């Protein structure tokens, strides 16, 4: 593997991206090198990342936002290409008529996608099982813990009809734990709860949001609940089996969220949530009118102060390290985290901002930043 590693210079030459661009995409958590030398800080990339860098270059030439590119790269190696196709289609719909160069680049990406779907050799099987007609499983969960996990991620479920794969919550079952994950491209949330009874390989279910909401409605008692998987059908029932929510999983492959949350470490700041929320609700904002910013609305600009705190910038003169976030999204994330104190982790200005619980590293959310250079 060491002999196959590519230096940042070689990766830049083979991909068409500059060395500075590769450094930028590393800092933004879009294309993170396999290895960084701890002494020199020099970056090394795996051979498969050269193809991803080429793809990234094409998508950027086509003007695709970083939030969408991160999902394209995360879903690129999957067997179900609906998400990648949906992202390409959604971006095309946003482009103005007459952008022939961008259309040409996206067509090239589709051609590459067709090539991946019809490879000359069969790829190695992964250790992940998705819900199919041959899958069965039964596991026991704590109702209060599952309720808290669903509450922590529900705000991040997507609603774009072009991307139905993001309209559900991923149930990821592995090693005695259930992780629930949701993303709408501009924000992502992950939560974990303990699970017993499943001893097989890793199992992933994509539960439609309405079914997940029906499951959440059952979790009103402090008692165990049973999650049953039978093919593409999933059911949650109470311990006494007197109430049940059941339905079919979505037939799409969710993006690899573990890759999406693999970001360079940022600076962590502990914030008092009630005070921070009050400052957000009454503090300075800027308009956000471009769709790639995640939504139209208002943007709060976060600035790290000299004493290690976070303030809201209101002077109109941006510091290069300032980070803009959709205010409504940030308020949603604070509410979902459900703590009086939270950790904000800020990396590069273009990297996602993490909202973490001090007492639970397994439950967190990420928010994509808003460009401040418009």
What does this entry look like structurally?
- The protein has 374 residues and is α+β, with helices and mostly antiparallel strands.
- It folds into three domains: 2-117, Multidrug-efflux Transporter Regulator, Chain: A, Domain 2 (Orthogonal Bundle), CATH 1.10.1660; 128-258, DNA Polymerase III, Chain A, domain 2, CATH 3.10.150; 264-367, DNA Polymerase III, Chain A, domain 2 (Roll).
- It contains eleven helices and 20 strands.
- The chain has helices spanning 8-15, 19-27, 47-61, 66-75, 82-94, 100-117, 143-153, 209-218, 257-260, 273-282, 327-337; strands at residues 6-7, 35-36, 43-45, 128-130, 136-142, 168-174, 177-183, 187-196, 202-208, 224-230, 233-238, 244-248, 267-272, 286-288, 297-304, 310-312, 323-326, 341-346, 353-357, 360-367.
- Strands 4, 5, 6, 7, 8, 9, 10, 11, 12, 13, 18, 19 and 20 form a 13-stranded mixed sheet that branches. Strands 14, 15, 16 and 17 form a four-stranded antiparallel sheet that branches.
- Helix 1 (8-15) crosses helix 3 (47-61), helix 3 runs antiparallel to helix 6 (100-117) and helix 7 (143-153) runs antiparallel to helix 8 (209-218).
- The chain is globular and about 60 Å long.
